[in-house]
Amino acid sequence: MLTFTADRTGSQARLGKMKLPHGTVSTPCFMPVGTQGSVKTLTPAEVAEAGAEVIVCNTYHLYLRPGHKRIQAAGGLSKFMGWNRPILTDSGGFQVYSLAALTRVTDEGAEFQSHVDGSRHMFTPELVVEIQEALGSDIAMCLDECPPYPVSRPVAEAAVARTSLWADRCRAARQPGTNLFGIVQGATYPDLRERSARSLAALDLPGYAIGGLCLGEPSEVTYDMVERVTVLLPTDKPRYLMGAGYPEDIIAAVRLGVDMFDCVLPTRNGRTGTAFTSAGRVAIRNSRHADDPSALDPACDCYTCRSFSRAYLRHLFVVGEALGPKLLTLHNVRFFQHLMQDIRTAIEQGEFKSWSNEFLSRYRSSGEPAGQ
Amino acid sequence: MLTFTADRTGSQARLGKMKLPHGTVSTPCFMPVGTQGSVKTLTPAEVAEAGAEVIVCNTYHLYLRPGHKRIQAAGGLSKFMGWNRPILTDSGGFQVYSLAALTRVTDEGAEFQSHVDGSRHMFTPELVVEIQEALGSDIAMCLDECPPYPVSRPVAEAAVARTSLWADRCRAARQPGTNLFGIVQGATYPDLRERSARSLAALDLPGYAIGGLCLGEPSEVTYDMVERVTVLLPTDKPRYLMGAGYPEDIIAAVRLGVDMFDCVLPTRNGRTGTAFTSAGRVAIRNSRHADDPSALDPACDCYTCRSFSRAYLRHLFVVGEALGPKLLTLHNVRFFQHLMQDIRTAIEQGEFKSWSNEFLSRYRSSGEPAGQ
Fold first, then answer.
1. pLDDT of A166-214, one tens digit each?
2. Helix extents (H) in chain A
3. How far apart (Å, rounded) are the C-alpha atoms in residues B291 and A170?
4. What are the Cα distances from residue A206, in Å, to A12, A224, B151?
5. Among residues A53, A269, A284, B65, which one has the fewest Cβ atoms lying within 10 Å of its Cβ?
6. Contact predicate A85/A55, CB 8 Å
7. pLDDT by residue (tens digit) across B202-231?
8. Residue A318 and residue B240: Cα distance in Å, rounded?
9. Which residues of chain A does B32 touch, with a Cβ-Cβ cutoff of 8 Å?
């Protein structure tokens, strides 16, 4: 599924093309998150214009509302939401663990109560594949068990075993043509990560995700786990680090051979008033922007940066106008696509290492401290 | 300021062109409301694409936040908000009466406390003109006294007198080139309406608004008041019925010779899930839309109607996605611009009466009951 060119400067970074039913995706790529079938505040046209070639939607949410059968009857998720490019759906496992009232997890599956109405449901590996196939996902994810951070070794070890068991059942249940990705678990235990990667690699799936990271552990630990896993995964399959969203983490992971990323950071931070810019993060509510006629990011070509001053954007947030969160989201989504484009160009030109060093020195050296 | 052609079929409807500093406006026109310097949920590009040639912003809100001097320093409101077409600002009188904690009204002006932080302020006729000139408004409104509905005759009579007094002071305070409109008051008392209209007409202002209507009184009363006023206003000046937003009210008022309209209905109803369509109003949350693949309004050419099904729009509202309110607002704003375009075409072709009868029979004959 992935054809790629290795980085000529010796890192593990790869430049790839991923052919999917709804289109071809250039990697390394960043996938904006459209949890409930909408990249929050943006139209599909705006997401496409920002340069995104694939987005992530959520099996758990769409299963509950409006229901996968309803979406299937409407012609699939891409058609339903007006996004005529590829969609990756995560399995819903993470949301079952983090959002729903989890009643019981056995080898059979995960029982939970809906966060919407308290109704009882059970996700089995077979059901999550069926749901994702009904949605018409370009990439479907295996049901996994994703422990929180930190977690004890016995819990992490059991999650690795169950994740492998479930991956095997997902694989057996899938229809021909379904691009099913496995998810490597193992928390922050190097040998468990390696065990999980080997076990899943043996299933010969079309792609692999690294789950259970970016949950608050130190960056060095994240990078160490990613490195231990990527060297064990097949080189000709895409690798997806779930939930990594900080530019520095994305660049570090690309360097270790990761091809795909997703995170709520650009959309969530946009809504709460934090912009990612080429000079670092900007908290737009800060009073020092009150009379600033300059663009949010003079290096950006998005509609927000072309059309409005920081003073106006701040005003929108101060008075609570919905246009503020939307314009910052639009910018942030563009910023991440621009970043990935720059990464791809740097790899292509054999300059990834020098480019990333230059980017990081500029990105870290300024900007405002900003909470998430 | 207004050049117009009378309706050839004998109604008072007029087709006009209003030349303003930021551009020419075709009348009859509907002005979307951008209270705080933003037509809620929409970018200025979307408002322009919907066909709006002029919008209404609010002096009271912008005076409080971000402050008119800040906007003046930024180059004026049009530049500040990225809307390079005309802007009408209302005087803030209505908001002082309806929103702020009003402490005292004398002939000198209206004292009030900010609804934001409780700070004390006073709007005088001179100050509201100064604020609107600082904002760079294409059309500025006189400070008026706008009583609620219903109101006793003595209160209405005093408001008419004070409104005339203030209009005279606004006129004296304005800079050359400021397009200052007077506002006719008089509540639902025919003779007071006529007294107010005569008094303001004598000031020879560039345009006239009819205020203090569309506040809940029966439609027949509204129309009666409008008719009594329009016949007394100069024919060569634009007439603006403040707050009229229902298509049937707009059509009735155009027939009586009104040129300009504004209302929060398209934006507010859009945000709360009610769409105006060529077949009447649609409450998009209604479960009967859950599997409906058809467009919100098949007769509409907006992005929402071109791109999404009722089923998807309903989903967005049910799960609380910000895109839902935005897409319905976009449609509603376009619907009203489309309506005004059709009205103008009908007047131009000498078919306004037959067109409006046809429109109203179609518009009223279907659609869902929907609260505001």
1. 999 999 999 999 999 999 999 999 999 999 999 999 999 999 999 999 9
2. 44-49, 59-64, 68-73, 77-81, 93-98, 125-135, 153-173, 190-201, 219-230, 247-255, 265-272, 303-307, 310-319, 323-348, 352-365
3. 29
4. 20, 24, 74
5. B65
6. yes
7. 999 999 999 999 999 999 999 999 999 999
8. 31
9. none
**HSE value, Cβ hemisphere, 13 Å, CA-based, for A37:** 34
The letter for the amino acid at B186 is G
Give the A:B interface size as CB pairs under 8 Å: 106
B292 touches chain A (CB under 8 A): no
Q: In this structure, are residues B321 and B312 in contact, taking their beta carbons and an 8 Å threshold?
A: no
CA B330 to CA B267: how far, in whole Å?
8
Q: Please give the Cα distance from B206 to B226 (Å, whole number).
A: 19
Has B90 been annotated as catalytic?
Answer: yes
Ramachandran angles phi, psi of A234, nearest 5°: -60, 135
Return the structure tokens found at B105. 């009204």
Q: Which helix (H) or strand (E) holds A174?
A: none
Chain B CB contacts of A327 under 8 Å are 43
**B-chain residues within 8 Å CB-CB of A303?**
43, 45
Is the minimum CB–CB distance between B268 and chain A shorter than 8 Å? no
Task: Find the closest chain B residue to A74 by CA distance.
Answer: B293
Long-range contacts of A222-227 (CB under 8 A, 24+ apart): A222/A249, A223/A252, A223/A253, A223/A256, A224/A190, A225/A186, A225/A188, A225/A190, A225/A193, A226/A252, A226/A253, A226/A256, A226/A258, A227/A256
Instruction: Read off the pLDDT of residues B50-91 as tens digits, 9 standing for 90 and up.
Output: 999 999 999 999 999 999 999 999 999 999 999 999 999 999
Facing B322 at nearest CB: one of A40, A308, A318? A40
Nearest alpha-carbon partner for B285 in A66, A183, A324: A66
Give me the half-sphere count of Cα atoms (radius 13 Å) on the Cβ side of residue B8.
8
Give the gap in angstroms from C-alpha A304 to the nearest C-alpha of chain B: 9
Chain-centre distance of CA A215, in angstroms? 13
> Do the chains contact at A318 and B65, CB–CB below 8 Å?
yes
Q: Which of A138, A144, A259, A262 is an active site residue?
A: A262
